[in-house]
Predict the 3D structure of the following.
Amino acid sequence: MLKLSKKYCGHNKSLSFASNVASYSDTIEVHNGRGNVKSFEEIPGPKSYPVVGTLYKYMPFIGDYNVEALDKNAWLNYRRYGNLVRETPGVNLLHVYDPEDIETVFRQDHRYPARRSHVAMYHYRTNKPHVYNTGGLLSTNGPEWWRLRSTFQKNFTSPQSVKNHIESTDSIVTEFVQWLKQINITHNEDFLPYLNRLNLEVIATVAFNERFNSFSSEEQDLNSRSSKTIAAAFGSNSGIMKLDKGFMWKLFKTPLYKQLADSQEYLEKVSTEILLERVHFFKHADNNDVSLLGSFLQQPNLDLKDVVGMMVDILMAAIDTTAYTTSFALYHISRNPEVQQKMFDEILQLLPTKDTRMSSEIVSKAVYVRSCIKESLRLNPVSIGVGRLTQKEFILRDYLIPKGTVIVTQNMVSSRLQQYVKDPFEFKPERWLRGSTSYENIHPFLSLPFGFGPRSCIARRLAEQNICIILVRLIREYNLKWIGGELGVQTLLINKPDKPVTLSFTPRNL
């Protein structure tokens, strides 16, 4: 795991937030009251060479950066260069660490916030116009992105819509717990594959009103629909970051691009089959259908190609992301018995018996459980930070940031720095609880596990609710203990545990 020194030399802020942004004219010399504004090239960073820029830093044997350890790279950059770090791996890239600077970056957001991500997936989809209208919600920018986002988000982000899925989610999680008891799970097994199956089952039900029967013995086979769907989601996500940095796939179909294409094709197949069955067999609106797909089909400005794209995006984004996030939460909870006991005490009050059903009221009252999720996301967010593609010039710490710069906010590293968080390496959920003696007024732009603004995770409320229900059910049933060593991250677009998720499960008698 990333080892961060608890002693460090802080970097003084050269500008307050109020002076971070300056107005300027293209026809006169730019000033901000502190002297001439410096160029982007003057921002500290690794040496850049013609043609390759700083890409050599990621090359095997030559560079000291690892594309699957971006958290470690970010820490090295911070220690070497400070709060702003420039790279040029084919594009102008700026790493931002200070939460006030991160806030400044997001205050520049255009009406349609843009990012340079999922580039190869965008290429793949836009070359299949018979399947897709666009590159999808994850890779599209501009007005077309907003058309998709504004239409799809209605039932993703509405609190009442999210609450409608509590009963079905709890039913599946309860079924999952019974399956664990039936197979008598042991600490010799990696728990992550089990969480993948659980989250596939939950998202398929919530989004498509579809059961994959992932817990059945038939679906354990590697050639089953659930196994191949889980593999295709991982195959899509795992190569995106490397493909974003590369260019050879534009010239010919590299093995990594082929993996992405094959994975996308399988998710298309599954999504299309589900969609066509729904369209053919449900010609009239089903008023009892609260699934996301049911709501999509009622939107007048969407056609079936838009819906297929969104279904593939959901399968890509929901299975691995929620499973990994839950894994890290279980890691922290199981290593801190006093935290787990406080969780259990709260859960026991809310669920006096194991067969008590979850409700929206119970979820809202699980305050300590939800603070544990927030604290886990501070230490192990979904990704290392948030990306933006600048759509205008602006000034940050006396530097002129050009239009077209890729900015990455390094929230994961910053959330582990003592100048922003007390005892940053400790798992302390109380820091999020108002009224607690350990409560901290943490900068709102320090921990952004679901992004920011209109480009933030569309399924945030749903994901947090699902993780809460999973943790409540597992802690209600078992006392958990961490068996493995220290858990780090593998940065495959989203942060994946770099070792098996090894837990011991001791049944509770209450």
